[in-house]
Amino acid sequence: MDSLWRDGSRASQIYFISGGHKPVNLHQWGPGVRDVYALHYIIRGQGTLETGGQHFRLGAGESFIIFPQKEIYYYPDPVDPWEYVWMEFNGRDAGRVVELTQLTVQHPVLPAAPETLEPWFHLAWNAGASPSEVLRADARLQLLLSYYMEYYPGDQQEEPKDYVWLARKYIEQNYWKPSLTVTEIVQAVNLERSYLFRKFKGATGESVSAYIASCRIRRACELLKTSGLPVQSVAYSVGYHDPLYFSRVFKKATSHTPSAYMMLHQKRAEPGMEEQALR
């Protein structure tokens, strides 16, 4: 349990490491490299970041980030030294999330946000050693980064939406609902109905309603093969509250009743029974 929550194998794949508050003083760091991402927010005062042969002058409300393994040197203004908060993080998905903002290795600074971001830094600092505290710290880190994504969206966020992918994803996450309708999918994707239908048919070869049905049948096949659930439970699990109707739909799609399909695959799983099941 401990290794799951305290290192990079955590399920979030972007995780809080540490954070803090640096009051007004003449502290400086570098030149050197770090092996984590470290996001800084300037509360007041001024300072300078040097990296990649560039000098960036920063003031209140602005942010800068340290990228892993990139040499940096930062220091306060001797007359008006800065005060700042910071947060360190890492993980498999950390770089991908940062890429969804305007922060880059070539330009690791951001102008002042529409509102102060200082409070979001404070949220994660009190992370303790328990799994619940660590999980909350990770969640608060992601909340902070979501504001950077909103206020400073990167070019990747401007890519055209893949409406077919969005529709398929919505179906695959909601196929189990008996109430799932084509209208609901159209509203979720937020695209004109006939245009979505044309794009969906062209990309998948199926109508939206046919894709819902095939998604349900595929999942029913998996459950009948492996779950050991009775047919009624399988029907309910894939969005059919009427087992008889489910049986008719399933047989039309597979040429087997659900019971026969389940028995067939049970026989195939038994040693020495595969040839007999196929006769």
Question: In short, what is this structure?
Answer:
The chain has 279 residues and is of the alpha+beta class. It is built from twelve helices and nine strands.
Description of the molecule:
With 279 residues, the chain is an alpha+beta fold. The chain has two domains: 2-156, Jelly Rolls (Sandwich); 163-275, Orthogonal Bundle (Arc Repressor Mutant, subunit A). It is built from twelve helices and nine strands. The strands form two sheets. Strands 1-8-3-6-9 form a five-stranded antiparallel sheet. It has a four-stranded antiparallel sheet with strand order 2-7-4-5, with no helix packed on it. Strand 4 (47-51) and strand 5 form a beta hairpin. Helix 5 (163-174) packs across helix 6 (182-189) and helix 5 crosses helix 8 (208-226). The radius of gyration is 27 Å and the shape is elongated.
Give the N-terminus to C-terminus distance in angstroms: 49 Å
Figure out the total of helices: 12
Average of pLDDT: 86
Q: If you compute it from the alpha carbons, what radius of gyration comes out, rounded to the nearest whole angstrom? A: 27 Å
Low-pLDDT parts are 1-11, 273-279
Element-by-element helix/strand order:
HEEEEEEEEHEHHHHHHHHHH
